[in-house]
Amino acid sequence: MVASSKAEIRNLLYGHYEFGECVIEDVRWRDQGATIDLLLNYVWSDADGFAFDGQRFSVKDGRLRSDLDTPLVKTLRFHLVQEFHAHNWWNAAIVSADVLNWGASEVAAIRVQDDSLFLSKYRSHPVDFHHVTAF
User: What DSSP line would sit under 50-61, residue for residue?
Assistant: First the structure.
């Protein structure tokens, strides 16, 4: 599925539970850095995600997959990437651990932000840009 408007991107993310609890497996740079693929190990048994009625959203009947030991990798591809920022949120428990586990790259949610200040520097471009945040 290709989503280009803010509403389409938001609906795609809602339809996949905003990729919450999923694990980042890889970040790949394509097209001389203009395209970024974000590969996530998808943990949900379905892709029904959130239901959105135009005013509010509610969680549908999603369950974790029974075969979590078998990766189910889904790719989010972002085109015409202007900025890409990555931050690790290391805490004392993670830093002192002998081995990193999946929790180090688990996603809480991926969301389209209504951030006109951040996007204001790109208003003169001939295409619309969107601010997407994974946290």
Answer: EEE-SS-EEE-S
